[in-house]
Amino acid sequence: MTVRWPSLQRCASRLLPVAFAATVISTGLTGTVAPAPRPVVEGQVHTLAVARTGPGWSRELHTGQPAEMVGLDWQGRRAGAVDVRARRDGRWGPWQKVEGDPAEGPDSDSVEGRGQRAQRTTAGPVWVGPGVHDLQVRVAEGQLDALRMHTIHTTEPAARGISTAAAATLPQPGIIGRGAWGADESWRSFAPGCDGTPTYADGVRYAVVHHTVSANNYSPAESAAIVRGIYFFHTHTNQWCDIGYNFLVDRYGQVFEGRAGGITSAVVGAHAGGFNTRSTGVALIGDYGSAGVPAATYNSLRSLLAWKLAYHGVEPGATITVIAGSFDGARYPPGTPVAVNTIIGHRDVDATSCPGNVGYALLGRLRADLRSDVARVIGKPLVVRNGTWYLRPWQNAGPALTFGFGNVGDVPLMCDWNGDGIATPGVYRRGWFYLRNSLGSGVADVAFQYGDIGDRPVCGDWNGDGVATVGVFRAGSWYLRNRNAGGRADIAFPYGNPTDVPVTGDWDGDGSDTPAVVRRGMWHLKNHFGAGPADLVLSFGDASDVPVVGDWNGDGRDTPGITRGGQWYLRNANASGVADVTFPYGDAGDVPRAWR
Ligand SMILES: [Ca+2]
Ligand SMILES: [Ca+2]
Ligand SMILES: [Ca+2]
Ligand SMILES: [Ca+2]
After folding, report:
1. pTM of model > 0.85
2. What share of the chain is helix, strand, coil (3-state, %, to 5)?
């Protein structure tokens, strides 16, 4: 059987598979995979022709080493396509079209974009099924010089247990790490100029969705072998320093870590020429030119991007301006400002049809879904200035909701006083708390006396019942109430020095808020109430910064932030390190808080 495909269905790796009769499993397969024996991945290079070949040329090849994936390359930066088919049990399977893609790859001024590798065009790799020894190749399009075939033997070593990720707010989805899918880390220094060191950008601003254009007829157990095959091809044939994509999602909803460097970091990939810096590239394993995207794939892509974009403070669906990097054959010359959505398909920035017409058509729904996913749960900045509150709808964008509550000199608080899931304002004024249960100007819904002049007020859900209540910090001791009413402290203990800044948060995500003190840029976190040492000490900010706590990425854990002269620096981990998100909002002298 010969199936012809419209040439529009190209993509990043230019593989056009034929069969896509996969059985889609809709139950949650997303999860983590236990470490397994090191899998086998081996490659062979076969010279098919030393001179120029064109349409009509074909050749059969017997490989001693079994092959599961096949890629090709030829001399020069030149478009072309090759059909490949495999013989199994004495019968030839259908032809698969494999297209060369000059649009995929690293920016040309990067280490992996320079040199000899740019002089050849690569195509693939495509999945041909397990244990193939006999292959046939024919040129479908183009005049191809010095055509070579790369066969990749990539086996699945053992069955692996898959556990389902726990649901919370915007939790990190189960991601199969490089160790779990069997990445051979030595390949990151295989190509000339590659020393295994990832390249980082100063943040992630948008996501680029791809499809691998490899076949759709693989089993869940074969996905890791496909990822290893793509990794092998990208490092050994394309001569990149790692797999091009930052993440890969299979037809069954399994998510794989792509390029090394840390899933929470802004790792620069090689997936969208000229647009690799400050983007994260996610490849759907399969061909979505005409085949539908399985629900499991969509759901995992949605969970992955909700988590990843929230981590970097990206507003889903917003339009931003990015600057095109250098890339040979680029759609936009280097330095061109390009307006892009924060969730785009590869075709939006490069000359490619990636991620396929069906994949591309899903992006509108994906943007809307992610917008509501993320807006609901992330911590957003607010500042209070002379009794006026300015609440921003996104971390780095949007007009503020503005209203007055309290007076100059009041200490602002932002907590969920009635347990309806929405934080609203409160102020502390000389031993009195004034709490409001809605956003907007108006009188206090609750007012009571608790504490004394000079105390520093705090709020939080100390007992995990969903309702936030007040407390005060006085001379190194904490006095916490479990009701929003006057009376004696329910919890009292010494913790910190009188000059420390008291803050509170759910540092461990267990649903209850606990204290911390900030002392000259050092955060001393406690996960329970009582005297004694901190559970965790981390460094974030300087002595003159103003601490502000929030669940900035909506994953259920509060983490540090600081403001410094109107600039916000947010961290999404309770560990020392640099800011994950930074943006300007407000002025020096404003009191910063988080809301959601
Ligand atoms: Ca509330
Ligand atoms: Ca409570
Ligand atoms: Ca907690
Ligand atoms: Ca968080």
Report:
1. no
2. 10, 35, 50
Residue 7 counted as domain residue: no
For 82, the token pair is 């090759």
Residues 306 and 191 reside in one and the same domain? yes
CA of 123 to the centre of ligand 2 (A): 59
Q: How far is the CA of 574 from the centre of ligand 3 (A)?
A: 12
Question: Any idea what DSSP says for residue 299?
Answer: H
Asked if the structure places residue 502 within a domain, the reply is: yes
**CA end-to-end span of the chain, whole Å?**
57
Query: Three-state SS for 304?
Result: helix
Domain presence at residue 436: yes
pLDDT at residue 49, rounded to an integer: 85
Domain boundary among 375, 394, 426: 375
What digits encode the pLDDT tens for the residues 28-86? 223 333 344 567 788 888 888 888 999 989 988 888 788 889 999 998 888 899 999 99
State residue 162's pLDDT score.
30
Considering the domain architecture, whether residues 436 and 506 belong to the same structural domain is answered as: yes
Q: Which structural domain, as residue segments, surrounds residue 57?
A: 42-103+115-153
| The total number of structural domains that make up the chain | 3
Same structural domain, 162 and 149: no
Ligand nearest to the CA of 307: 4
d(CA 565, CA 584): 9
Side chain identity, residue 391:
L
Going from the Cα of 530 to the center of ligand 2, the distance in angstroms, rounded, reads 17
Q: Which domain CATH number covers 392?
A: 2.115.10
CA dihedral 177, 181, 182, 186 (to 10 degrees): -50
pLDDT at 191: 96
Residue 1 lies in a domain: no
pLDDT tens readout for residues 136-195: 999 999 999 989 888 888 876 543 333 333 334 788 899 999 999 999 999 999 999 999
Rounded distance, CA 332 to CA 184, Å? 35
559 CA → ligand 4 middle, Å: 6
- Backbone Cα Rg of the chain: 28
